[in-house]
From TrEMBL:
<dbReference type="InterPro" id="IPR036926">
    <property type="entry name" value="Thymidate_synth/dCMP_Mease_sf"/>
</dbReference>
<comment type="similarity">
    <text>Belongs to the thymidylate synthase family. Bacterial-type ThyA subfamily.</text>
</comment>
<dbReference type="InterPro" id="IPR045097">
    <property type="entry name" value="Thymidate_synth/dCMP_Mease"/>
</dbReference>
<dbReference type="Pfam" id="PF00303">
    <property type="entry name" value="Thymidylat_synt"/>
</dbReference>
<keyword id="KW-0963">Cytoplasm</keyword>
<feature type="binding site" description="in other chain">
    <location>
        <begin position="256"/>
        <end position="258"/>
    </location>
    <ligand>
        <name>dUMP</name>
    </ligand>
</feature>
<comment type="subunit">
    <text>Homodimer.</text>
</comment>
<dbReference type="InterPro" id="IPR020940">
    <property type="entry name" value="Thymidylate_synthase_AS"/>
</dbReference>
<keyword id="KW-0489">Methyltransferase</keyword>
<feature type="binding site" description="in other chain">
    <location>
        <position position="21"/>
    </location>
    <ligand>
        <name>dUMP</name>
    </ligand>
</feature>
<feature type="binding site">
    <location>
        <position position="218"/>
    </location>
    <ligand>
        <name>(6R)-5,10-methylene-5,6,7,8-tetrahydrofolate</name>
    </ligand>
</feature>
<dbReference type="InterPro" id="IPR023451">
    <property type="entry name" value="Thymidate_synth/dCMP_Mease_dom"/>
</dbReference>
<keyword id="KW-0545">Nucleotide biosynthesis</keyword>
<feature type="active site">
    <location>
        <position position="195"/>
    </location>
</feature>
<feature type="binding site">
    <location>
        <position position="312"/>
    </location>
    <ligand>
        <name>(6R)-5,10-methylene-5,6,7,8-tetrahydrofolate</name>
    </ligand>
</feature>
<feature type="binding site" description="in other chain">
    <location>
        <position position="226"/>
    </location>
    <ligand>
        <name>dUMP</name>
    </ligand>
</feature>
<keyword id="KW-0808">Transferase</keyword>
Length: 313
């Protein structure tokens, strides 16, 4: 994972100090590319523990076309909780304590942080217990899964993921093996416009490679997840198409470190990378659309301890 650590160092040395939507502030560079040979091991970060279980359940959530956090909460995955909670507290249905700007306030006000945690926990309990509440307040709008599996067009619904798999199988040399999550007609309806917004597959010498374009990249918290998620996607689709894995090419637009993550980045850079783990998938003759989180695991993962950092909402 030297490529990822080099990116962190590059931003520290050359990044421009910028404001951002969250009000947190970043150090940012524009236009950066990393390449990972998947035959060399599964690219799960070893300089801090990364929650592979969360990566798996989120990717399967995308693959199944789901957009409601109820599924993720059932899998004990809280990656998208804050985005749904933000929509809820900004709606007319919410009548609790003022949650304005909770992402930053929780870092500065211990009393508020206690109130916030209680409100978020109550929200998640309602999502799990009340199906109608979940439908109304757990859905994130037409985010990744909707665009991958059910893109609305004038000619009907398009299942981009199924189409690209069929295209790879029957026309491997095509230059149109593309899936996009950036739907201009629906961006404003999404809890968060897609950051990893377009990916293209490439077949050569019996191997499947993929290039991702990511418009916005939270390098400390988000990018390790993105690398592992798309590496896993390549493995799954390669198997579906009877191919070996090739490269994951990760192209970044605005690659940034949040200003409140800098100490954590220095701590990570002081650590020595370890051997990459190995991916294990129990296909048992099934399509990738039928896999569960229990079917996917890693072996030989011995990372350095986790490094906590606040998420910017």
């Amino acid at each position: 994972m030297k490529q990822y650590l080099d990116l962190c160092q590059h931003i520290l040395e050359t990044g421009t100090k910028k404001g951002d939507r969250t009000g947190t502030g970043t150090y940012s560079v524009f236009g950066y590319q990393m390449r990972f040979d998947l035959a060399q091991g599964f690219p799960l970060l070893t300089t801090k523990k990364t929650a592979f279980r969360l990566i798996v359940s989120e990717l399967l959530w995308f693959i199944k076309g789901d957009t409601n956090i109820r599924t993720l909460i059932q899998e004990r995955n809280g990656i998208w909780d804050e985005w749904a909670f933000e929509r809820y507290v900004n709606s007319a249905a919410y009548t609790g304590p003022d949650m304005t700007d909770f992402g930053r306030r929780v870092l500065k006000d211990e009393e508020f942080a206690t109130i916030y945690k209680a409100e978020l926990a109550s929200f998640k309990e309602k999502i799990l217990a009340d199906e109608e509440f979940a439908k109304q307040h757990g859905d994130l709008g037409p985010v990744y899964g909707k665009q991958w599996r059910a893109w609305d067009s004038a000619n009907g619904v398009i299942d981009q993921l199924a189409q690209v798999i069929d295209s790879i199988k029957h026309n491997p040399d095509s230059r149109r093996h593309i899936v996009t999550a950036w739907n201009p007609a629906e961006v404003d309806e999404m809890a968060l416009p897609p950051c990893h917004l377009l990916f293209q597959f490439y077949v050569a010498d019996g191997k499947l490679s993929c290039q991702l374009y990511q418009r916005s990249a939270d390098v400390f918290l988000g990018v390790p997840f993105n690398i592992a998620s798309y590496a896993l996607l390549i493995h799954l689709i390669a198997h579906e198409c009877g191919l070996e894995v090739g490269e994951f090419v990760h192209t970044l637009g605005d690659a940034h470190l949040y200003q409140n993550h800098i100490d954590q980045v220095h701590e990570q850079l002081a650590r020595e990378p370890k051997e990459l783990p190995t991916l294990k998938v129990n296909y048992n003759g099934r399509s990738i659309f039928d896999l569960t989180a229990e079917d996917i695991s890693i072996e030989g993962y011995d990372p350095h301890p986790r490094i906590k950092a606040p998420i910017a909402v």
